[in-house]
Structure formats: structure tokens, C-alpha cells
């Protein structure tokens, strides 16, 4: 059974498909409900809209790991490190580097 939150997020995304914040919430809801492939799709759509949306690199990488897709996780984390470094976000960079080190 889908939660009210899930339905609300789907409506937000339908109304504003380029709203990365709403799409990120939807992706996280897919993860929490175990719909990992749908979550990956949403995270990748976010990155297609805004390649600087750093949190999506980390979370799509974690989702790839849950799916056993280690190489895709590595690529996501590496790209996220590049973006965080370019943007000067040391916190995001350190989280992404820690995820890489954990592979």
C-alpha cells in the first residue's frame, strides 16, 4: 500500500517535473518502500536536470550498492566527488570519498 506521502510526492513531480527537491523526495520514498530501480531512475533524472545536485550522487550510489551494482555505485561516487570538489563542498566531498573507500 502506498503512503499518502508517496502519493503527494508523485503529484508534486507530475506538476513540476524539473523540481529536483520534489523528485529527490520521491526517490527517497521509493528507496524506503523497496522500489530500488524506480529510485535509481528518479536519482538519475535529477542528475539529468541538475548535474550539480550533489546528494543525488551519494544516494544513487547507495541504491546501486543495494542492487549489487558496485561499478555503477563507484562511478556515481567518483562523479559526485568531482562535482563536490568543483563546487567547494568539503562535507559532501568527504561523504562521497568515504563511500568510495568503503567499496
Summarize the model shown.
With 103 residues, this protein is mostly helical. The chain has 6 helices and no strands.
What are the main properties of this structure?
single chain, 103 residues, mainly alpha, 6 helices, 0% strand, globular
Radius of gyration: 14 Å
Structural class: mainly alpha
User: Which stretches are low in confidence, meaning pLDDT under 50 for 5 or more residues running?
Assistant: none
Gross geometry: globular
Proportion of residues in β-strands = under 5%
Characterize the largest beta sheet: strand count, sense, and whether it forms a barrel: none
Structure, explained:
With 103 residues, the protein is an all-alpha fold. It has helices at residues 4-15, 20-32, 36-49, 54-66, 70-87, 90-101. The longest helix is centred in the C-terminal third of the chain and has 18 residues, at 70-87. The chain is globular.
Task: Furnish the topology, listing elements before pairings.
Layout: H1 4-15, H2 20-32, H3 36-49, H4 54-66, H5 70-87, H6 90-101
Helix pairs in contact: 1-2, 2-3, 3-4, 4-5, 4-6, 5-6
Amino acid at each position: 500500500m502506498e503512503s499518502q506521502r508517496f502519493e503527494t510526492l508523485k503529484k508534486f513531480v507530475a506538476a513540476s517535473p524539473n523540481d529536483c527537491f520534489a523528485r529527490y523526495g520521491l526517490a527517497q520514498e521509493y528507496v524506503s518502500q523497496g522500489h530500488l530501480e524506480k529510485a535509481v531512475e528518479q536519482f538519475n533524472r535529477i542528475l539529468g536536470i541538475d548535474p550539480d545536485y550533489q546528494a543525488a550522487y551519494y544516494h544513487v550510489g547507495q541504491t546501486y550498492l543495494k542492487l549489487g551494482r558496485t561499478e555503477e555505485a563507484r562511478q556515481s561516487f567518483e562523479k559526485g566527488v568531482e562535482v563536490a570538489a568543483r563546487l567547494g563542498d568539503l562535507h559532501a566531498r568527504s561523504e562521497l570519498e568515504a563511500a568510495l573507500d568503503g567499496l
